[in-house]
Amino acid sequence: MSIENPNVLFITADQWRGECLGRLGHMVRTPNLDRLAEDGVLFARHFASAAPCGPSRACLLTGMYLMNHRSGTNGTPLDARFTNVALEARRIGYAPALFGYTDTSYDPRTRPRDDPALSTYESVMPGFDPVCWLPEDPAAWLKYLRAQGYVIPDEPFDIYLPVDNYPGAEGKGPSYPPPVYDAGQSNTAFLANEVLDYLETRGDAPWFVHLSWLRPHPPWVAPEPYNTMYDAEAVPGFTRRESRDDEGRQHPWLAFQTARPGFRAPDDDVALRQFKATYYGLMSEVDTQLGRIIDWLKANGQYERTLIVFTSDHGEQMGDHWLLGKSGYFDQSFHIPLIVRDPDSRADASRGTIVEHFTESVDVTPTILDWLGLDVPLTCDGHSLRPFLRGGPPARWRDAVHWEYDFRDIRGAAPESDLGLTIETSNLAVIADARFKYVHFAGLDPLLFDRETDPGELHDLARDPAHAQTLARYAGRMLSWRMGHMDRTLSHWHLGEGGPVFRR
Fold first, then answer.
1. In sequence order, what are the residues at sequence separation of 6 or more whose Cβ sits closer than 8 angstroms to the Cβ of residue 109?
2. In this model, does residue 1 exceed pLDDT 80?
3. Cα 447 to Cα 461: distance, rounded to the nearest angstrom
4. How many C-beta atoms surround the C-beta of residue 335 within 10 A?
5. Tens of pLDDT, residues 193-240
6. What is the pLDDT of residue 394?
7. What's the CA gap between 236 and 20, in Å, rounded?
8. Which of 84, 142, 424, 474 has the fewest CB atoms nearer than 10 Å to its CB?
9. Catalytic annotation on 380?
10. What element of type H or E holds 189?
């Protein structure tokens, strides 16, 4: 490391679709992210390795695929034996500070059965110091609002309710009016303030900050002026079949998912288009607050010694394929942004580059650790992106992207009762390259899409005899991928004459 007192600013914005950046020609206005991309590297084909929040963040922070860390749902424990980016950074003196949340479900074998931490999936990844912990129940932010004179409702989530009788709301969707708080007091601004206050105390000492913003995650209600920044009639339309029933005929899982509360998109297109407009507004709000932090870094001489990573945990269906939220096998749930700004002068030649190679969220932890001069743990399935930051791709790089989705339901058993599956067969895995996407279900028929001729993924080719060889080839590629990433805890060791030998 040639930079003295290097810092790490590792940012996630929850549920951000990968195409939603001004730098990529999208209508959403993200001037600060665009400038960051022009001064760094934008990875245009970056994908989450899992969904929803807990599993995805487990992949992101450990560098491991879901099939190895096995924290497959919000609430599935993460094995305490696994290391992560924060624990590794602590080895060289950092005290990684968390602002926001990591949605980590603790290993119950390490705690008493009556430990309150086992009553939530929203605990803190080991290794992070929760300087400002802001999980789904945002007590710290509500305490701040109370101090500002707001009356806090008995039900915490009611703070997001839109105000009544808002001018111009007639004929708009329900997410058009703003909440009672203003943009300077939103949870997005609140976390930015907390980060800036923390940085003011650090002086020239190196720091590691993980800033985990909730937005643009639901509830989709944005403070002024972000609630009216985008016209609902001007947002892009929806990728879907004519009707929900038509969509569901593609696959039993899709019919199951589009009928589930919480995943079923509304039939009201006015409401849905306004959801999308408000979603974009929340993105622009995040961008504004990010700009404040970057301005502080520049004004205080820290920009040129800070690695900045901006990404998301997963995407959002936003009505595409008649779905809301994040799940399944469609790109909308898994294609996410990644911008990395390396301050090292050796990265100058790559500034402004848009990388079209496939990258995955499991690559982020190896990248940060590599930049800090640390060995990447053998448990990591991803690879450092530093070669892209300093010239170009490594000699051998993946030509496809992979992700997994575990839809088991331990408490309700819905896939078992509705789809005839078991706990262990309620999951799917995806391999996709520039041409085809193959979706393998553990207990249901596979899917195959031609991504060139059918970018909307509306036509399944898995049962087409003309594509039988393609189906078999991609099934084989998926098997090879899984075989090549099986647990490596001791597999690189050999015991014999002369003692133990280890080779990467």
1. 80
2. no
3. 7
4. 22
5. 999 999 999 999 999 999 999 999 999 999 999 999 999 999 999 999
6. 86
7. 11
8. 424
9. no
10. helix 187-202
Give residue 137's pLDDT band: very low, low, confident or very high (50, 70, 90): confident
Q: What is the DSSP letter of 335?
A: B
Amino acid at 463: R
Instruction: Provide the pairing of β-strand 97-100 with 208-213.
Output: parallel
At 350, which amino acid appears?
S
- As given in the structure block, the two tokens for residue 42 are 């934008």
CA dist., res. 357 & res. 359, Å (int): 6
Q: Which residues pair with 405 in a beta bridge?
A: 51, 428
Active-site residue identified among 20, 53, 59, 380: 53
Phi, psi of 373 (to 5 degrees): 85, 15
What is the 8-class DSSP label of residue 369? H
Average pLDDT on 87-92 reads 98
Query: Is the pTM here over 0.90, yes or no?
Result: yes
Q: What is the band of 476 on the pLDDT scale with cuts at 50, 70, 90?
A: very high
DSSP 8-state code for residue 423? G
Query: 7-399 domain in CATH 3.40.50.970?
Result: no
Tokens of 359: 């990258």
Helix (H) or strand (E) holding 438: strand 436-441
Tokens (6 digits) for 206: 């190196």
Task: Tell me if 342 sits within 8 A of 386, measured CB to CB.
Answer: yes
139-147 vs 187-202: helix axis angle to the nearest 10?
90
Residue 393, pLDDT score: 84
